[in-house]
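Let us practice reading a record.
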Amino acid sequence: MKFCDIGGIKFSKIVLGTCYFGTRISEKDCFEMMDYYASHGGNVIDTAFSYADWLPDGDQASERTIGKWLKSSGAKGMVISTKAGLTKRLDSGCAANISFEQLNTEIDKSLDALGISSLDAWLLHRDDENIPVDEMVDMCNEFAKEGKTKLLGVSNWRPERVAAANEWANKNGRIPFAVSQILWSAAQITKEDWGDPQLGVMDADARKYYSESKMPVMAFSALAKGFFSKGFESIDNLNGPAKERFLTPRNIERLETMRRICRENGVSPSAACLAYVTSNPIQGVALAGPTKPYQLVDAMSAPDFVMSPDDIAEFER
């Protein structure tokens, strides 16, 4: 397993994503996946206060399931990352829900559900661009000062806002954001393809910012909803989000590149997808969000595989 340092904390480069833990994924399968992940060198579990409150009995289901596993397994040294400040609106998608009072309530409830006294990383799940960045930074700094989290980060923020927030923090003696979580994979996608105009994606502007700033990126949907694994033998095998969001002429070209890389290196498409992020010149950690234990086994089948710079560049042309 490859590792990197984010704000003084050791992160495995493969992160376990848990969006549907305790809802669409049974507790038994969740525990089996967390056991497997931890026993194979992974040490970062990513969740959110809102996972998966759009489903029946989904309020904090992911955090509660992780908390039960942490207590029953006695696992030590796991890095726990969660997010706050998101309201799910079924008629209009996702929106930020940010105020000091709301964030304070959510972080306290997250700590309680997880059964821990302090988070390793706590991220703002969305941005509210009506709030100045200095106010955002100050709100988040209060939670770090109180010891509720070690690291601060953001998710789905435009790079311009991240840069402005950290510039203000560094000039005014505040704790800056240490990590950014956005949609990033070997497949090309836009906010419009995904159907969420507030989503943060690794587009040209983001690539320029994260390359120059060296800010670490947590890549969610790094497996592109299974586009490469399902389509490896034939694009006729694609269905659901893998087909609806990712089946484009450019991604069909990228699928050919992925087939070549996998065959030349003897790795699975899922393992190669993660390596695209973990080997990238941008410091990235890749979130794997399996829904079945066998999918996690496949994704982690070659955790030390390093994709060549030339192969990475071929995806990014």
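A brief commentary: The mean pLDDT is 95.
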